[in-house]
């Protein structure tokens, strides 16, 4: 299955292009806290840390390129080894001249290294799409647990066997369920932010306490509402799990029924042919019963999924 949903890591708006989502998921170190301000772009595409990095690497590349070259590709490593041979030869033959050349080269090496630095594609996308992704580690315990429950329920549906085999509304699930998680995440992050503000207020002051009371009730109602939505996802996931189990049972009985000829031959050796036929017919009937149970279980799971989001009216 295409990676449409991740159980861990950042929660990313599913409306973003797939390539953008993939880059953001694969470079979590480039992401910025969603609750903070939009980060400013680095000057000239460079960050202060880039200059520091280029500065400390400059003498290393100048005097011992073979050492740092081992951290890069084979092509760069070979060039570094060749440069190291020249450095050694220079210091052996003409130490003074070699040192002067090395000192003159360092500004150019620094400029070259600095030109190779920058925030990169991941950093630019992280800035451009700030607010379109959320980092679960920013949440407090209660709200982090709620988000984890929602993601776990959705993952169990999207990676279930009945989903991957097309027995459910797979297209609708892959679109609707990630959007459900994103909506829940936005609500939970807002609840977490307001709860932090609420906890920071001085409730000992009577006037402040009077203002906090209705706000506390709103937070309670909103938390209960999003919890109910998560419980609906969990109920759907439970239906899908039951359908998976029914599918497994049906496949097991199908395999047993397919071996009917072998069992019939074995029974015919010890009892009458009529008894053998009756046993095989019993397996066939069992397969029919399990198949009906599977269809009913899949239909219940499908209805549970459709109940999560009401149909939109045309127009």
Describe it for me?
The chain crosses the membrane at residues 51-72, 79-101. Keywords: Membrane, Transmembrane, Transmembrane helix. By secondary structure, this protein is mainly α. The chain has two domains: 11-16 and 132-308, no CATH class; 44-118, no CATH class. The chain is 73% helix and 1% strand. The protein has helices spanning 18-26, 48-63, 65-69, 74-93, 95-115, 120-128, 141-158, 161-164, 170-200, 206-258, 260-268, 273-308; strands at 11-12, 133-134. Strands 1-2 form a two-stranded antiparallel sheet. Helix 2 packs antiparallel against helix 5 (95-115), helix 4 runs antiparallel to helix 5 (95-115) and helix 7 packs antiparallel against helix 9 (170-200). The longest helix is centred in the last third of the chain and has 53 residues, at 206-258. 21% of the residues are buried.
Please compute the radius of gyration using only Cα atoms: 32 Å
The order of strands across the largest sheet is 1-2
Oligomer: single chain
Domain unit count: 2
Transmembrane segments: 51-72, 79-101
Keywords: Membrane, Transmembrane, Transmembrane helix
Task: Reconstruct the topology from this structure.
Blueprint: E1 11-12, H1 18-26, H2 48-63, H3 65-69, H4 74-93, H5 95-115, H6 120-128, E2 133-134, H7 141-158, H8 161-164, H9 170-200, H10 206-258, H11 260-268, H12 273-308
Antiparallel strand pairs: 1-2
